[in-house]
Design goal:
By secondary structure, this protein is of the alpha/beta class. The chain folds into two domains: 312 residues, Up-down Bundle (ABC transporter transmembrane region fold), CATH 1.20.1560.10; 134 residues, 3-Layer(aba) Sandwich (Rossmann fold), CATH 3.40.50. Helix content is 63%, strand content 10%. It has a six-stranded mixed sheet. A four-stranded antiparallel sheet has the order 2-1-4-5, with no helix packed on it. It is elongated, with a radius of gyration of 35 Å. The C terminus is likely disordered.
Length: 585
Amino acid sequence: MRSLRRMFGFVKPYRAKAITALILLLGMVGADLLIPRLTQRIIDRGITAQNMHVIASTAVIMVGIALLSALFSIANTILSVRVAQSFAADVRSGIVRKVQTFSFGNLDRLRTGKLLVRTTSDVNMVQSIVAMSLRILTRAPVWVVGSVIMLVLTSRRLSILMACFLPFIAVVIILFMHKAQPLFLSVQRALDRLNGVLQENLAGMRLIKAFVRVGHEKERFGDANTKLMMENISVMELMALLIPTMLLIVNLGVVGAVWLGGASVINGTLTLGELVASINYMSFALFPILMLAGMIGPLSAADASSARILEVLDADADVKEREGARSLENVKGRVAFENVSFSYSRDGNDPVLKGINLVAEPGETVAILGATGAGKSSLIHLIPRFYDVNAGRVIIDGIDVRDIELHSLRTHIGLALQEAILFGGTIRDNICYGRPQAYEEEIIAAAVAAQAHTFITAFPEGYDTQVGERGVTLSGGEKQRIAIARALLVRPKILILDDSTSAVDVETEALLQDALDSLIAQSKHNTTRLIVAQRISTVLLADKIVILDRGEVAAIGTHAELLVTSPIYQEIYRSQLGDGGAPHV
């Protein structure tokens, strides 16, 4: 339960409420423990002695104590719920804050489905234990201790009998806990898998229907669903065995108490009231243990969930800001790769980039071409430090990007990816996502440059049009142009377009390139552009074209130079534009 104990550190800000809840709990238990004593008084001094005054007065006291216990219970429940809910909110916030510090490498390993389960199901599991800790989990042991003390004071002989049952109960609980924890961990893993499949199904529903793969996806979800069902059945079967076992031990204890106590009453060594009180105290001692046994499952599940939450909270970001990192000032926008090698694996095996040497001078437009898997996106992801190099350096204005504050570095970089991610809200909200304080004319200017203004104003609500979940109401080309407008609005010194016009027609793309040139020319500073492209028409006028082949620079030059010197570029040109097979300038 080490992981679960660590999670209780999130309760510290709410210690005052938690302590108050525990004090109320002690008062509630104390009130409950008085009831058997008062029952003994009614039997021995009231019923046996036929004293109606004792019966009436004791009954009034019992009602008062019951009301007091109820008030304590209500107040304890309210405080427990507030502490547990606050705890859960803090843990969820902690997970999200931690995830925001992760690099792309961390997110590659911790998939979205897993993070969703940790933030929802796992947190809820631990939250329920926090609430129970301020109620059942604390009340039960206090009740046991108090009942044992009261039982010893009432009848030592019967207390010895109960002491004989406690070792059996302890052994059963330990055995079940040892068996339960791995099973609950398997349940959460199966839930991870189910959520991952479900998320993929919902996100790719159009693709599934288009390729007539509904049957395949039903089968895939069915497998994950069946796996979760079987894991849950295994847990429930174990718990189904636990409760009857504990009930058997408790009932045997009560039967033993009635047998020995009854003999003592007949022998005159124990009064009838003391016997009733002793049986009540024995029940008070044994049934909380039964309650605790029933909590083995939730406790084991919460410990497994705690370990999974801590896996996120304890994870170190692959990309860390160095001590003494500096901010970028008077940025010119010179980007250089010096003998850069990069691999997605931590050990550096299977590098996707090898010995890259490349310079983009301030204001230059550098195009990056290559086959799928050549390493184009991997290369540009190193500039804003989404990943760190395994060897070599990425330099901006003569400074290693690892020596620059991450916030400062990324503030000067505008990025538009092939998969244009839009957030729920309006088109305006999405364009000014990087600069919420931007003026309306600046938003419109960025949209005009991105060739988005025309289709935006065609909507009845214009820039206030709701884009829907992930931009579902827009086409792929429209989403890409909004993403480009978003990148332009931050006024970057380095603009990265990662195949961000793949869903745009050639005519619109040409207009977009002209508008970008015009916008940058009108600005007070040059912008270095790095453009990853599949279409050669996108990069014909670039100042420098870089050909990547299997993670290495195969050629660098202008369009005219590469048509003469690069067989790979010639092949790309011929395959896309065609020239009868003869290179020309």
